């Protein structure tokens, strides 16, 4: 008898009817002979409503108290889900993150999991019960205070519990059938990927595909825990995220060269114009940005014009951090002595990801040619072993996705009738 | 520097504005030089909404899970209250019942407090912080599961914490100015009582006055913890509930003969007509009712009519348990051999309570004469050392309250402009 960990997001438990549907699904998994542990997010918009309430009493709520408040969301969904399962004649017991042994550091709002000691979960399973665990939360090892894990926290809770319990699989449910070769809202011929490596999934997630959070994939990769990404609205197999050597196990002789196309419209580009081309100038710029806790993504430094010895430095960053970065750079103007700053939030990033890329030369060229044929202008380029990303005008993101998808022959003949959504927390 | 424990009910923290108002009040208490511990109920109708949600997925929600669900209510109110206090520039830390060391038995929905180990509260106070504690909840000593204390649970949490922390006083806030000599909605001249003994308060509560729950008064009495019942909407002194010998400390030479008039419209009366007047028959009747877990209150057995050797047995009980009791008695008809059952839910109970009663003869007579003069017919009578109660027709309850209030000269000259409300959980 194997252990299956299932994670249901907020949209899967948005109301009483959805909760009953999920309860039936969980009971079916149990009846199929598995020991079942379920990680659940807060119902629908509960988290947003709690944040609104907090903001009504304080413009900047204390982080410790905000965590205490938000964890009420999962407490509600997990208890109600357990009741719904009990009502189907199967024993279910709900556990908070703390009760489930999710031990974290003390960084409220973005705590990291330090250890998982799931003694009470194991006891529940040994008693034949289904264990329901609150996602997104834990308890600080040092302060004993309740913490939340931040974005992707529920997925990470599920993977961490699966690892600690030595589960066979961690199933992540959402309203999407799996990971697609591109966003089906942009490319209707996008194909559901059957198997994908941790590394490719990390690149897809980092490059804007919203199906799984980086953190949870990193955790799964570190401990080699297979993730099955699937829809709570269908019985179909979804996408298996596994280690690279297992991707091709099922008959295929070689990994696909390109697995998918990801895109991201959440970024902005800042260009520092006319930076003196001498040692330490670029460092000063990025030190200032880093000190402001800005996460920069791609960086391009132009070759300096010989006549002036001035160069331009461009980088991309999340749009929400744009103004903070501009202010930080503004303060540097006197010391670094650049000419001006340009801010552009009408950019998008399109990436091709594939483990086969490293052994297939000419991939970048084929990608760039396809973009050129589609009339898409490339503003910046960055690459990794298994990814090529370009920054383009936001208005050209969709053309670029379709051009890349076609160039690498990723499409299926059927058009998938799915909504490509994001996971919550 | 003394420790003050304050308890705010759901109506005092119904929305963000109320919470901010309560936060200011708490900060004032702190600024006055006290260490402050606050026990808080769930906001407004939160508990009812959570119960509705539970009933949407299960007609009979599992008790363990219902407790898990309901405790989300205080989690929300306590965290938001702590944020509001932090926003006023004072440190506040919220604690669940479990974190506050409220250890209970494992009876979900009506757990009893076994022990209070408030180490984390003491640490917070030592750090100069205000501690906010979830009322109504604890953690089971044996199962480590989250429990709720049932009705009156938040008041009891406050008193139990006050005792464990050796606080100077436990202040119970509601929307009422204190304990009144009668319900001001019935008797506009009802007077706020300045001091009242634990014993009188117990009798008042048991006889239907809704200001404090029996449980919390019993706890306070056992450990001699003074309770100050007051309104969160005014700065006025409320009613002090203290030990009998402290009631008269402030100048008054003797305890008032009668402290107040309580009434209760929640009861029904069952009469078993024509019971054979021989040993064991009444016992069989009350055994049947007790086995059905019915709480009976007053009992009257008529003198049997000599001609028939049959007697009538009447008792009162909560209306909600009426049908269960009637069914239990119906099954006895063959064995006990009574003639018929009568059920009357149009009754009410009116009681006079006063510690001075035991040393003042003629109190009952004065009470009964006043009722008679007001045209009120007495159906049943019961008495204790410090109380006389009568059952009357429900339509005559208000007349009876006013007649008793006037007979013992309880009124003030001013008419109090208050709403006489009940406490929540």
UniProtKB/TrEMBL annotation, chains A, B:
Name of the protein described by the UniProt record: Aspartokinase
Pfam families: AA_kinase, ACT_9
Segments forming domain ACT: 270-346, 352-425
Reaction(s) catalysed (UniProt annotation): L-aspartate + ATP = 4-phospho-L-aspartate + ADP
EC number: 2.7.2.4
Upper taxonomic lineage: Bacteria, Bacillati, Actinomycetota, Actinomycetes, Propionibacteriales
Family of the protein in this entry: Belongs to the aspartokinase family.
GO MF annotations, alphabetized: aspartate kinase activity; ATP binding
Pathway the protein takes part in: Amino-acid biosynthesis; L-threonine biosynthesis; L-threonine from L-aspartate: step 1/5; Amino-acid biosynthesis; L-lysine biosynthesis via DAP pathway; (S)-tetrahydrodipicolinate from L-aspartate: step 1/4; Amino-acid biosynthesis; L-methionine biosynthesis via de novo pathway; L-homoserine from L-aspartate: step 1/3
A GO BP annotation: threonine biosynthetic process
Binding of ATP, residues: 7-10, 185
CDD domains assigned to the protein according to its UniProt record, in alphabetical order: AAK_AKii-LysC-BS, ACT_AK-LysC-DapG-like_2, ACT_AKii-LysC-BS-like_1
InterPro entries for this protein: AceGlu_kinase-like_sf, ACT-like_dom_sf, ACT_Aspartokinase, ACT_dom, AKii-LysC-BS, Asp/Glu/Uridylate_kinase, Asp_kin_monofn, Asp_kinase
UniProtKB keywords: Amino-acid biosynthesis, ATP-binding, Diaminopimelate biosynthesis, Kinase, Lysine biosynthesis, Nucleotide-binding, Transferase
Keyword flag Transport: no
Binding site for substrate: 47, 74
EC class: transferase
GO cellular component, as recorded: cytosol
Role according to the record: Catalyzes the phosphorylation of the beta-carboxyl group of aspartic acid with ATP to yield 4-phospho-L-aspartate, which is involved in the branched biosynthetic pathway leading to the biosynthesis of amino acids lysine, threonine, isoleucine and methionine.
